[in-house]
Amino acid sequence: MTIIEEIAAAITASIEATGNVLEEVTLTPEGSSKLLTIIVDNENHLNLDQITVVTKAISEILDTLEALGETPFTLEVTTPGLDRPLTLPRHWKKNHDRLVSVSLKDGTKVLGRIGSLTDTGVMVDDSSIDFADIERAMIEVEFKKVGA
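RE: above sequence
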């Protein structure tokens, strides 16, 4: 088991107890220490208070986790940013009605709003797209016009 897998195994239950899910764990060198980044998500958008609860819950576990050894580390708990692709059905559900750019495996590009979902696909405007056909899907940032 890798150190990332050990960390994930140790903190997953604690994260799920707060009503959230573990998206990703990364551990990167940062000078003489390491940066441990934990990305958590849920069906809604997390706020700072929710992130604080998760951080406290997992930091207690990490303080005693032997896999991290004696090397100092900085813990960063965050949520998936807009630059992360939509890869799971729950990502699509969470972003319902947002503008999305979808690249399909056949080279087709679709730009539209996320509509209804099934277990196997999603409606993007008038296009029915199977999850299996998606190469990459990204939320498009929209800015409100001033005075609009």
